[in-house]
Amino acid sequence: MHHPAAVLLLITCFFLSLLRAAAGGNTASASCLPHERDALLAFKHGVTSDPAGLLASWRRDEDCCRWRDVRCSNQTSRVHELRLGSSSSSTTTALVGQISPSLLALQHLEHLDLSYNELEGPTGRIPEFLGSLKNLKYLDLADIQFSGELPPQLGNLSKLQYLDLSSTYWGRTSWIWNITSLKYLDLSSNRLYGQIPHKLMLTSLQFLDLSSNGDVDKNMGVMATDLKNLCSLEILKIRSALLYGDITEMFKNLSSHCSPNQLKELDLGVNQLTGTLPKWIAQLTSLVTLDLRSNNITGPLPASIGRFTDLIFLDLSYNHLTGNVPHEIGVLTYLTTLYLNNNDLDGMITKEHFADARSLQDIDLSYNALNIDISSEWQPPYKLSVARFAACQMGPHFPGWLQWQVRLTDLDISSAGIADKLPQWISDAFSNVKYLDISNNQLIGGLPASLSSMSLYELYLSSNQLTGKIPALPPNISFFNLSNNSLSGPLPSGSGAMGPIALSLFSNKLSGQIPESFCKAYQGLAVLDLSNNFLEGEPPPCLGVMEDMEFIALSNNSLSGEFPSFLQNFTSVLFLDLTKNKFTGRLPAWIGNLRLLRILRLSHNKFVGDIPMNITSLACLQYMDLSNNEISGSLPSYLSNLTAMRKTNMTVTCYVDDIDNFHLISLSVVLKGQERNYGSISRVFDTNMTSIDLSSNNLTGEIPEEIIALNVLVNLNLSRNHFIGVVPNKIGEMQSLESLGLSWNKISGEIPATLSNLTFLSYLDLSYNNLTGIIPLGTQLDSLHAANPFMYMLTTKFDNISIGKED
């Protein structure tokens, strides 16, 4: 029997050795060899920057076996491990410089980790000499931004078991498949091209990651590889690699040849795979993760899914799966994540689907034709963190079973057919929810007074039938959308220090003035939409504190005063809409300082005076609507300098960051003689729809010939002014025009024959002018005239013009 004191001594020694190893140290018996110490110092000399001091302990007067991140063999004192990987890709810890050839002196080196550093050196290529370190078993060069081909000399590393070259290079990899000792191979996030060899002989391989490879010209392409020799494979990832072809024919030998199959993780997501879910998947009974998201897979979800008893993560979203969701999914007791969203599934979802799913945490069934038929009294066996059921039928009553999900942080039940009041328990049950979307339902009644007690970052309740006043907002709210309801009373007060980033309250019944307290509460706003309400008075100057504003929409209220002076602080503004208010005065010269402005809407006000010359400094302006005002003077020729409305060699930075976050604002456009909803403002940015509308003003003089320089303009409306002179003769050079309105002016002369060159033109109105001569012919113009025979109607005699050539 062992003496207790002796046992205690052994345990103490054991833990001391573990502590030394964790610190990168070595036992006292190891003492490095001089030539290996010199080699390491030469490596240090090749490092030009060491911000974290990783090599600070590397000094000649110290034993190199005791240096940080250096490990020596206790038997031979040879250096056999260098663990110099940075903790992340952050430049605050990364080594900068090159990998010195002096490492060749470390011929007993087995483990080399240089990952997440900046050691590309002057050539930018992976050093060929690494292939001479014949004893290497572990090589990690991840995220070093090498360029060029991978040196084939690395194929000489016959003992290599672990190779991580993720995010390092691009090129071919044919020699890698000959290193039969490999157990771990990560080539993800490179730009590999060429196909994987037909037969893979890596019989020891347990981990293979080829994700995020390929591009349009040089890609991994179809993978019709025989994987039957990879029976040791446990993790296979080929995500975002442009794989295409029928999934049924791919990888089938992997399941049929290997019994039992060892595969635990299969990730083929974000590719172009087609076909139905193959039968061979049912044989992969050891799977823990199955990810096939964002492909073109069709057919039903088979009941054999219940055989994956170890499954933790299942993602089949963004495919074209059809049919019912099988009840067998409810037997997966370890399943934590279930993503079936954005498919074509239908049928009923009942509590039987989740009978034994006690581990479930994240579920997304959104955008399927599913009916969630679960009793409000049912208490699920799981505690969800994420629940998304957008566009699934859950109503008409509010789904009461959700009140037991007190761990929820993300809930989306938008467009779910709910016609009910918000339950009283919502503030308590959802106290931890950060993202809540119940928009596009038929919610009635008021908002809970306890809204400010919730932890919400994002709240979307738009397009319902909510009434009453808006209570104080949650203190951490960032995105708040209550648009398209019937809420009344004053603007909501804020309760947080920073205030939201986006506040959308358009199309309600809010009234009163914008108070000065609003400025302090919402000074961090980037998006503000108060359109279609009953607000009045002058906007307070303190709104100028919102210097990060990018989208501001105040249209269709009764706001008054001159052009708001606080707007000159909004140098980041992209969208400005003051349409349909009671603003007066002149447009300020400083409007040209809003250099990122993309859309300017000032119509239906009482602005007067000339169009300021400085407006042409708006190099990003693509949509300008000044119609229905009292603007006077001539149409300035300098409008031709609006860079975003013309093809030019000038490079103008008009990038819109995170446009998806600013989908709250919609845009109606007067196009082709009618006001039409153009959808989300993001669509205008994405399509680069360009428009100038100066109609219904008091503009005089001639239409300058220079306007034809705006050759990417889609809509030009100068109707209902007092223009004289002729239609610009070269107007046919405005090749992008789809809509042209010049009606109700005093334009005379002939209609330019070049109009027939406008092949995209689908609306033309030249009526009520003093035009004479011949109407030009052309397929497009003839069709337009047939649809609208009055588009050339004259103010006096109709016989001033004729169609076609004279006799």
Describe the structure.
This protein is mainly beta. The chain has a domain of 252 residues: Ribonuclease Inhibitor (Leucine-rich repeat, LRR (right-handed beta-alpha superhelix), Alpha-Beta Horseshoe). Helices cover 8% and strands 23% of the residues. The protein has seven helices and 53 strands. It has a 28-stranded mixed sheet, with no helix packed on it. The longest helix is centred in the N-terminal third of the chain and has 19 residues. The radius of gyration is 35 Å and the shape is globular. The C terminus is likely disordered. This is non-specific serine/threonine protein kinase. It catalyses: L-seryl-[protein] + ATP = O-phospho-L-seryl-[protein] + ADP + H(+); L-threonyl-[protein] + ATP = O-phospho-L-threonyl-[protein] + ADP + H(+). Keywords: Cell membrane, Glycoprotein, Kinase, Leucine-rich repeat, Membrane, Repeat, Serine/threonine-protein kinase, Signal, Transferase, Transmembrane, Transmembrane helix.
Short summary of the structure?
This protein has 807 residues and is mainly β.
Which homologous superfamily in CATH is the superfamily of the domain at 528-779?
A: Ribonuclease Inhibitor
- What is the distance, rounded to the nearest whole angstrom, between the alpha carbons of the first and last residues? 127 Å
Helix/strand-derived category reads mainly beta
Please estimate the helix content: under 10%
Q: How many distinct beta strands?
A: 53
Q: What is the average of the pLDDT values?
A: 86
Topology-level CATH name of the domain at 528-779: Leucine-rich repeat, LRR (right-handed beta-alpha superhelix)
Supply the number of helical segments.
7
Major sheet: 28 strands, mixed
* CATH level-two architecture of the domain at 528-779: Alpha-Beta Horseshoe
Low-confidence stretches: 4-28, 803-807
Name the overall outline.
Answer: globular
Radius of gyration: 35 Å
Strand content range: 15-25%
> CATH first level of the domain at 528-779: which class?
Alpha Beta
